[in-house]
Specification:
It contains 10 helices and 6 strands; from the N terminus they run βαααααβαβαβαβαβα. It is an alpha/beta fold. The protein folds into 2 domains: 12-23 and 94-226, HAD superfamily/HAD-like (Rossmann fold); 25-91, DNA polymerase, domain 1 (Orthogonal Bundle), CATH 1.10.150. Strands 3-2-1-4-5-6 form a 6-stranded parallel beta sheet, sandwiched between helices. The longest helix has 18 residues, at 74-91. The two termini are 28 Å apart.
Length: 243
């Protein structure tokens, strides 16, 4: 049975999708490289991809087209890369088990959950369904739903609005710096699931608004205690779950 939240416990939790719930970066890189190769460009590396982690897909392709000699428009590349990516996700969805476990515990306790992602609605729906995660989330906000992507806070503020929860009562779970910055700008607390995502936000770490963990050392019940939700989620302590 869920309990009423305290001032310190979250009224809702908002999850990023790619890199947070789903280990998708290698699949995105492969799809991006294949899409560019289709138009004759063969020089997009893992380092190039890393430059855009946390950035919305449409914005990413707009920047790629603006800075590289690619014989295609951003919309063409977005459509083709999405198609290639979704084909791979339908075959197999590589989940980050620790963050999924966290979402399951919160869902079982009745804590409202949302996904807020820079991906398209089609990508979000396909990945959540294929990964059997769709049952956990009552709200999904995509790149099409907001005027600007992360690090602008719009996607998280829209998720809070749809959940009917004040922004400052939400906790965000993120893997990328742009998403962490967006969450903090929205006035929300944030859990960064990679240490690198928290760089540049030392004041938020010191104030307790930003917690850092690693996918490889993820203890969902302990994390619930740290964000003040342990009383809401009455689950036995579990062993650490690798991502």
């Amino acid at each position: 049975m869920p309990m009423a939240t305290t001032p310190d416990s979250p009224a809702a939790v908002i999850f990023d999708l790619d890199g947070t719930l789903v280990d998708s970066q290698s699949a995105y890189l492969a799809a991006e490289q294949q899409a560019l190769a289709h138009f004759g460009y063969h020089h997009f590396t893992a380092a190039d991809h890393a430059e855009f982690v946390g950035v919305g897909m449409r914005e990413m392709w707009q920047r790629v087209v603006a800075t590289r000699r690619v014989a295609a428009g951003a919309d063409e590349l977005l459509e083709l890369s999405n198609r290639l990516y979704l084909a791979g996700m339908r075959r197999s969805v590589p989940l980050h088990r620790g963050t999924v476990h966290l979402a399951e515990l919160l869902h079982e306790a009745g804590v409202p959950l949302a996904v807020a992602s820079g991906s398209s609605r089609q990508v979000i729906d396909t990945v959540l369904t294929a990964g059997r995660l769709d049952r956990l989330f009552s709200v999904c906000v995509s790149a099409e739903d907001v005027p600007r992507g992360k690090p602008d806070p719009a996607v998280f503020l829209e998720a809070a609005r749809r959940l009917s929860v004040p922004a400052d009562a939400c906790v965000v779970v993120e893997d990328a710096t742009a998403g962490v910055v967006a969450a903090l700008r929205a006035g929300m607390r944030c859990i960064a699931v990679t240490g690198a995502a928290a760089r540049g936000c030392p004041q938020a770490v010191r104030s307790g608004r930003l917690l850092t963990v690693e996918h490889t050392d993820f203890d969902a019940p302990e994390l619930l205690r740290r964000i003040g939700a342990a009383k809401t989620v009455t689950a036995p302590r579990a062993r650490k779950t690798p991502g």
